[in-house]
Amino acid sequence: MEERNNLYPIFLKVKNLEVLIVGGGNVAEEKLTFLLKSSPDANVTMVAPMYRPNTVALAKKFGITMVTKKYHRRYLKKKHIVIATTDQPVVNEKVYHDCRKRSILVNVADNPPYCDFYMGGIVTKGNVKVAISTNGKSPTTAKRLRQFFEEVIPDNIDDLVKNLNEYRKTIKGDFEQKVETLNEFTKGLIEKKEVEHD
Question: What single-letter DSSP state applies at residue 76?
Fold first, then answer.
């Protein structure tokens, strides 16, 4: 039987949530960069005995709280999402088990069995955001797909979204009639060009 991706994609308002990144090395910086690129208003705390200079600079720029100490489960208090990025598997696995006991969503970098979620490839064009997942199998493929979608999704897609939102407000009728009108109006966006055969 063919394997399929059973992950459920959601778009989190991380401005309203508390995120903890455990670690201060290259992977921590990568995860922080990824998170802030998509959500510059994210509430993030980092805990690590030491940080790379670039990580410190990035954290200061975005007002990230940095705790210069070793991980302890007390840092999980009031956290909703945790990302473990240390180069010590024992610490990362402790973070995972501590989070599971407290029903906190956790991602241990590069360790799929210890992840409740993955951080996939993301394409953002104004209000339009596309998230890409390879089920944790190939981050490189997700990266290439992200580059592909960044090229094929037109830059003016945001204007279309805003205009359709304004148009939606003017449509009369109940919910079903509005959906039908919008479906008809936007049908041309995805119609495939017919290929002429000789």
Answer: G
